[in-house]
Amino acid sequence: MNKTKQSICIIGLGYVGLPLAVQSALKGYTVYGLENDMQKNELINAGKSPIKEAFLEINLPKVKIIATNDPSVIKKSDVVIMCVPTPIDEMYMPDLELVRIATKTITENFNPGQLVVIESTINPGVCEEVIEPIFAKAGYVVGKDYELAHCPERIDPGNEKWNVTNLPRVVGSFTESGLSIAQKFYETIIDAEIKPMKSIREAEAVKIMENSFRDVNIAFVNELAKSFDRLGIDIVDVIKGASSKFSFMPHWPSCGVGGHCIPVDPYYLIERAKASGFDHEFLKIARKINNSMPEYTVELMQDALNKVKLPLNGTIVGLLGISYKANIADLRESPSLQIIKHLEKHGANVITFDPHTPTHSTEKSLDEILKKSTAIIIATDHKEFKDIDPVIFKEHQIQVIIDGKNCLDKLEIEKNGILYKGIGR
Ligand code: SAJ
After folding, report:
1. CATH 3.40.50.720-classified regions of the chain
2. Residues 107-139: pLDDT tens digits?
3. Could you tell me the distance, in angstroms and rounded to a whole number, from the CA of residue 162 to the centre of ligand 1?
4. Can you tell me the distance from the alpha carbon of 369 to that of 414, in angstroms, rounded to the nearest whole number?
5. What dotted CATH number matches 202-425?
6. How many degrees, rounded to 5, is the angle at CA 396 between CA 395 and CA 398?
7. What are the catalytic residues?
8. 215 Cα to the center of ligand 1, angstroms
9. Residue with the nearest Cα to atom 33 of ligand 1?
10. How much distance in Å is there from the Cα of 262 to the middle of ligand 1?
11. Model-level pTM greater than 0.90?
12. CATH number 3.30.450.40 given to 3-198
């Protein structure tokens, strides 16, 4: 990394941009954060993290990040990194609008010789077909006036072992010089391998591949779970058995696949490949299976209530967990939101509690939701729920438990006279 390149502007201070900004500042860079949410900027400028995450809460107070909504900070920066959301819309179509806006903003505040990096997850082709043309239209030539690289973000919210400081990365660029500068830059920030890719397209394909790989493997066990429910086989036991084989990679069935990565990224490849005449049948089937799990969970609840002669319609169902995964506060694409919709469609009276997202909970405590509920669904395997003594459920006269994360002790719950049904067990 050229020693004169000392200032960085990170566009988007969310789950990806903020940890990167903190880590860059810890490594001695001058860091500007370009963020539209002024509330978030005020917190960050006061050294407070808007995101509940250990790495941020510990390190943000130690560094100086200039968080602002003034795009002129781009001009002051030697490196500009786009960490903006790349969501899908309600028709599962990729939405690159924020990438286009960020790119245009960079061209309007251009600093010749800049290294421009996009970390947001994008499909192969976006750098060449969307981003570079915006620079070209503004009269800037890649490899001459600026360098453009893609270093896909790797963040696992709530993971204490792997975080922005030590997760290996891949990087791709349009030019050899761009690749070398980007690789050297990331090597000054991240204490892990920064793997150069053959071209920017391969770099764009890596994140999509790794997350589609996870999605199809989860879909595999979700389909098996549905089959084993009919066959009376405990899938968790089978997965543990199969895991005794060296090449088996365990994945776990659940009430659904949420988050900003896994249920979203495959659609970026599906749609771009379709535009080139290829139909990703396998990826689409996996998405269909995983998207069916919230409704399947509600069907299990309906069947279980029938067994205790209760209709779903009118029954108070307590939903434990709204976050998309354990021990974090993040609702993006959370299966819980779909489960609520399906329960209400069947006339159930739904109440919710999540200790990590109190603002989205109808009930203030675990005790309160258990007191009011006839039946419950565990939708997120938060530690608070896994530690519940089954006797507590009995004391609150819970009649049915659907364990959407297979995280409770089935036998102990059944011993307390409660009808238990997991996903595939
Ligand atoms: N899930 C299952 N079964 C599984 C694993 C996950 O149903 O076996 C569900 C989770 O409950 C959640 C969703 O899938 O709703 C996504 O879970 P996740 O563990 O994949 O967590 P994410 O979405 O935060 O993904 C992150 C990403 N990590 C990085 O970018 C470094 C993703 O690329 C990783 O593959 C993933 O963590 C991981 O492997 O932990």
Report:
1. 3-198, 202-425
2. 999 999 999 999 999 999 999 999 999 999 999
3. 13
4. 20
5. 3.40.50.720
6. 110
7. 261
8. 9
9. 211
10. 6
11. yes
12. no
